[in-house]
């Protein structure tokens, strides 16, 4: 391959982004199947939907990395973080989404600061999606807050 056409630090952001997106795919796919085990069909569907969205993000990053001349290698797949009930899973997801938001925010600012508008726009697009994810997780958690204390969704599998 030729020399990469972006700043080395931008390549670093792309690599970290790919690792986090694949980690999110693994996490949500696992949670979808765990929700099936718990008989929470709607939650399972929502986690599956999230899995697909994160997979599409990973694909956008793969395309971008090839486009700038690097091999897309994600080197750090995170272990899945689970919990014993739906609220616990969502809390873990809020942490993951917040981390991804922070990464895209930093990457966007960095690319703006070095006048790499194309990369800045790329990261900004992902940032917008992840902010929406973080808000969805938050809203979902709020919608469950009344139930949490009643223990209806306590499942001591983990
Ligand atoms: Fe994502
Ligand atoms: Fe996300």
Give the key terms:
158 residues; 4 helices; 0% strand; elongated; binds fe (ii) ion; heme
Q: What does this molecule look like?
A:
The chain is mainly alpha-helical. It has a single domain (8-145), classed as Ferritin (Up-down Bundle). The chain contains 4 helices and no strands. The chain has helices spanning 8-37, 41-67, 86-113, 117-148. The longest helix is centred in the C-terminal third of the chain and has 32 residues, at 117-148. The protein is elongated and about 50 Å long.
Fraction of residues in helix: over 70%
Average pLDDT taken over every residue: 92
CATH domain class name: Mainly Alpha
Bound molecules: fe (ii) ion
Task: Please state roughly what percent of the residues sit in beta strands, choosing from under 5%, 5-15%, 15-25%, 25-35%, 35-45% or over 45%.
Answer: under 5%
Q: Give the overall shape, derived from the CA principal axes.
A: elongated
Ends distance: 46 Å
Number of continuous helical runs: 4
Q: Evaluate the radius of gyration.
A: 17 Å
The name of the CATH topology is Ferritin
């Amino acid at each position: 391959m030729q020399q990469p056409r972006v700043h080395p630090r931008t390549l670093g952001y792309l690599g970290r982004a790919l690792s986090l997106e694949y980690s999110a795919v693994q996490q949500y796919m696992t949670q979808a199947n765990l929700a099936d085990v718990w008989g929470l069909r709607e939650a399972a569907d929502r986690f599956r939907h999230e899995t697909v969205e994160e997979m599409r993000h990973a694909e956008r990053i793969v395309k971008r990395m090839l486009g700038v001349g690097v091999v897309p290698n994600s080197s750090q797949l995170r272990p899945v973080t689970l919990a014993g009930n739906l609220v616990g899973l969502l809390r873990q997801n809020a942490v993951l989404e917040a981390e991804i938001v922070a990464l895209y925010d930093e990457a966007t600012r960095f690319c703006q600061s070095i006048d790499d508008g194309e990369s800045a726009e790329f990261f900004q697009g992902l940032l917008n999606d992840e902010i929406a994810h973080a808000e969805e997780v938050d809203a979902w958690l709020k919608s469950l807050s009344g139930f949490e204390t009643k223990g209806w969704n306590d499942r001591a599998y983990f």
